[in-house]
């Protein structure tokens, strides 16, 4: 581990982030050298280039010709005949030269049937009409991007000054809110418990830590990075991205680092919130705000397993999310409990260096390969992202489809489908078959590991994991997969229920987070002294659109209840939807001279009922399945049941009638 991996050090190892869609001088230079431009296009995906070409030329015939070869998420252009790829690149070269020389304007944003045909070809399958409006918005240039605050009547400066907002948390979502509030001219302060921005990407630095949603999608829509070194970046590069966002938008001066919010109390009399905070030195202070945006994240309080003898372990014991860079695993006998997204990254990373790695698996996860998971982004691709108009946006849509809404059909239970509980519908069964074939191929027919790692539950019941050499790791001579139950932890290892003793020098808990303790350990007190955690009960958080709870005026949650994604997705997309919604709520309050917006109880209740009804027909409530998305009573409190496009629509406009605006 190098110095920069440590929290508190500087984010390291990345190239500078460039934002927005650039059609800058590089393209103009290359336009003077057609052969060089043509060569540059070789590095970019032909299916994505096709979208740009069609946008410039309206050549719908090309869409028809290419469509049969674009077969879906992971194979945009591989099966496209070479002559068709060459034709796309030749024609786009000519178009870009004209454009760079000023003989062709930037094309308009496509609409209607043409846009839908483009989306369907880009995705490799039929894309519903719903997506055209969302895509049109994504293609808007930064100056007219409607996702930030759009004042109808820009308020006077003193009215804005009277409306301070506090954001709790300076991670991905808090920064997003801050950037948009700053653009809107609203005063705000971020209270951040750490000494740095970045939230999860600052706190997590276990070996192999990285993202499993592709970065060209997992980034702010308004701050695209065309220089990601890999399609799936590792922690340092991700943290650097959020640090750069904070700098680029001038957010740092608004942050109180090393300060934790203990409580927030609403005053009916003054229509504002008083936050009590504790600094790094333990001293308490207070801050008043007209609105509070909680951006505390979901997965930040590590969960240690309730296994007898846990505290007796004499070796090094550490949780993935509370890693210690001084821990040296080389040559050690290491145990790892947990095989979720964190374990999937730690195990294969340390396995080559340990003497023996024993993995304790309670239940297997579905694991899917991705050809880009380890791949570096080529220079050609980076060039195309940065220089070809709209290319980055179309690529983003392809990833949106492959990693989010394109998977949604696999999550819904078909009541007529019955294959003994192994899958829930025909698409889900197809995905299951694909993943089983993959793991069997990896482990080799006849391997005793096959039965151990093949889940009995349907795909997507727990978070799908991208294969980080998991199966290759399991085949190593120095790795054991234990599927028997753990009886107890003892000072020098673990004893299993079948009476074996496994000697260990170190124990890694890849056992997840206390996700159901939403907003813990803060206390939030609303109208008439209403306590948010009493209202929710111990583990049943609910909110209208995952954002607002009745009785808590102007208290907004980012990544709140029922906004998480388990099938892939992109939590930054959800956050941006929520931030836009919050801005619309604040606009309504501020422009109408009001003080606060409080969601009506019946609107909240209807929403929660709809969420629950939808979840009853989705994979996460599959009988016998365990996952961290459900509470003790079995209610799914963590996940969004909707498609992302539905949530985008639901949060696009704020409906004043749904609120008591006082
Ligand atoms: P997790 O998904 O909750 O997995 C925890 C693992 O620990 C599971 O395998 C669980 O088994 C096991 N476990 C828990 N208690 C146990 C016990 N008492 N005995 C034996 N095994 C036990 O946690 P995570 O891997 O940290 O991931 C949490 C979430 O963080 C993910 O779903 C994802 O959203 C996010 N994440 C993302 C990335 C990424 O982007 N690459 C990386 C890390 C985390 P059971 O399945 O049987 O409960």
Query: What portion of the residues fall into strands of 2 or more residues?
Result: 5-15%
What is the radius of gyration computed over CA atoms, rounded to a whole number of angstroms? 25 Å
Number of strands: 21
Q: How many domains is the backbone divided into?
A: 3
Ligand inventory: NADP nicotinamide-adenine-dinucleotide phosphate
**Based on the structure given, which CATH architecture of the largest domain is correct?**
3-Layer(bba) Sandwich
CATH topology of the largest domain: FAD/NAD(P)-binding domain
Number of helices, counting only DSSP H or I runs of 4 residues or more? 21
How would you write the strand order of the largest sheet?
3-2-1-7-19
Mean pLDDT: 94
Describe the biggest sheet?
A: 5 strands, parallel
How far apart the termini lie comes to 54 Å
Q: Give unreliable regions as ranges.
A: 1-20
The shape, in one word, is globular
Output the CATH class name of the largest domain.
Alpha Beta
The CATH homologous superfamily of the largest domain corresponds to FAD/NAD(P)-binding domain
Structural class: alpha/beta
* Secondary structure: helix percent: 25-40%
Blueprint of the fold:
Blueprint: H1 25-31, H2 34-41, H3 46-57, H4 60-66, H5 82-100, H6 112-123, H7 131-139, H8 157-161, E1 165-168, H9 172-184, E2 188-191, H10 200-203, H11 235-248, E3 255-256, E4 259-267, E5 272-279, E6 284-289, E7 291-294, E8 316-319, E9 333-337, H12 341-350, E10 356-360, E11 367-368, H13 379-387, H14 391-403, H15 426-443, H16 449-453, E12 465-466, H17 470-474, E13 479-482, E14 486-490, E15 493-496, E16 501-503, E17 506-509, E18 523-525, H18 532-536, E19 555-557, H19 571-591, E20 597-599, H20 601-615, H21 644-650, E21 659-661
Parallel strand pairs: 1-2, 1-7, 2-3, 4-18, 7-19, 8-17, 9-10, 9-17, 10-13, 11-12
Antiparallel strand pairs: 4-5, 5-6, 14-15, 15-16, 20-21
Bound molecules: NADP nicotinamide-adenine-dinucleotide phosphate (NAP).
NADP nicotinamide-adenine-dinucleotide phosphate binds at residues 210-212, 299, 305, 307, 320, 337-343, 345, 360, 362-363, 462-463, 510-513, 626, 628.
């Amino acid at each position: 581990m190098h110095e920069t991996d440590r929290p508190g050090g500087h984010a390291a190892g990345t190239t500078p982030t460039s934002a927005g869609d650039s059609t800058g001088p590089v393209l103009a230079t290359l336009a003077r050298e057609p052969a060089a431009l043509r060569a540059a296009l070789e590095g970019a995906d032909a299916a994505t280039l096709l979208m740009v070409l069609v946008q410039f030329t309206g050549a719908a015939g090309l869409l028809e010709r290419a469509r049969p070869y674009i077969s879906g998420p992971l194979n945009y252009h591989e099966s496209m005949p070479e002559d068709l790829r060459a034709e796309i690149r030749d024609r786009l070269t000519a178009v870009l030269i004209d454009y760079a020389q000023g003989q062709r304007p930037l094309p308009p944003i496509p609409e209607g049937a043409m846009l839908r045909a483009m989306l369907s070809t880009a995705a490799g399958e039929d894309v519903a009409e719903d997506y055209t409006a969302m895509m049109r918005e994504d293609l808007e240039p930064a100056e007219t991007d409607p996702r930030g605050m759009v004042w109808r009547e820009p308020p006077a400066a003193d009215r804005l000054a009277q409306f301070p907002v506090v954001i709790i948390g300076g991670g991905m979502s808090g920064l997003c809110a801050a950037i948009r509030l700053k653009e809107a001219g609203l005063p705000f302060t971020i209270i951040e418990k750490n000494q740095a921005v970045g939230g999860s990407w600052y706190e997590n630095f276990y070996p192999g830590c990285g993202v499993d949603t592709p970065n060209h999608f997992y980034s702010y829509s308004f701050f695209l990075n065309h220089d990601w070194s890999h399609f799936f970046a590792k922690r340092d590069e991700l943290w650097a991205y959020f640090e750069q966002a904070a700098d680029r938008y001038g957010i740092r001066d608004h942050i109180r680092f090393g300060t934790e919010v203990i409580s927030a109390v609403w005053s009916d009399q003054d229509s504002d919130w008083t936050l009590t905070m504790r600094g790094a030195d333990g001293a308490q202070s207070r801050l008043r705000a007209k609105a509070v945006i909680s951006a505390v994240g979901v997965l930040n309080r590590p969960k240690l397993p309730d296994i007898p003898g846990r505290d007796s372990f004499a070796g090094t014991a550490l949780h993935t999310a509370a890693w210690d860079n001084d821990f040296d695993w080389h040559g050690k006998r290491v145990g790892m409990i947990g095989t979720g997204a964190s374990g999937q990254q730690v195990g294969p990373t340390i396995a080559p260096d340990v003497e023996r790695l024993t993995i304790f698996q309670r239940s297997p996860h579905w694991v899917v390969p991705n050809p880009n998971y380890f791949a570096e982004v080529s220079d050609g691709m980076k060039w195309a992202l940065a220089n070809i108009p709209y290319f980055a946006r179309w690529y983003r849509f392809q990833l949106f489809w492959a990693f989010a809404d394109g998977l949604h059909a696999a999550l819904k239970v078909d009541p007529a489908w019955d294959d003994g509980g192994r899958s829930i519908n025909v698409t889900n069964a197809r995905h299951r078959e694909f993943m089983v074939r993959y793991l069997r191929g990896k482990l080799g027919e006849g391997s005793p590991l096959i039965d151990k790692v093949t889940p009995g539950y349907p795909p997507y019941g727990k978070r799908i994991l991208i294969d980080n050499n998991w199966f290759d790791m399991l085949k190593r001579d120095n790795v054991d997969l234990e599927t028997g139950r753990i009886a107890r932890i003892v000072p020098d290892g673990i004893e299993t229920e079948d009476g074996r003793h496994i000697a260990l020098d170190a124990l890694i808990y890849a056992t997840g987070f206390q996700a159901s303790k939403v907003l813990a350990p803060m206390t939030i007190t609303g109208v008439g002294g209403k306590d948010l955690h009493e209202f929710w009960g111990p583990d049943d958080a609910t909110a209208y659109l995952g954002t607002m709870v009745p009785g808590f005026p102007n208290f907004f949650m980012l990544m709140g209840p029922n906004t998480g994604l388990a099938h892939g997705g992109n939590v930054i997309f959800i956050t941006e939807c929520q931030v836009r919604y919050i801005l619309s709520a604040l606009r309504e309050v501020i422009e109408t001279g009001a003080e606060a917006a409080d969601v009506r109880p019946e609107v909240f209740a209807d929403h929660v009922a709809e969420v629950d009804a939808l979840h009853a027909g989705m994979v996460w409530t599959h009988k016998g399945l365990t996952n961290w998305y459900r509470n003790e009573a079995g209610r799914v409190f963590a996940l969004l049941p909707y498609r992302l496009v539905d949530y985008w629509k639901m949060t696009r406009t704020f409906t004043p009638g749904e609120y008591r605006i006082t």
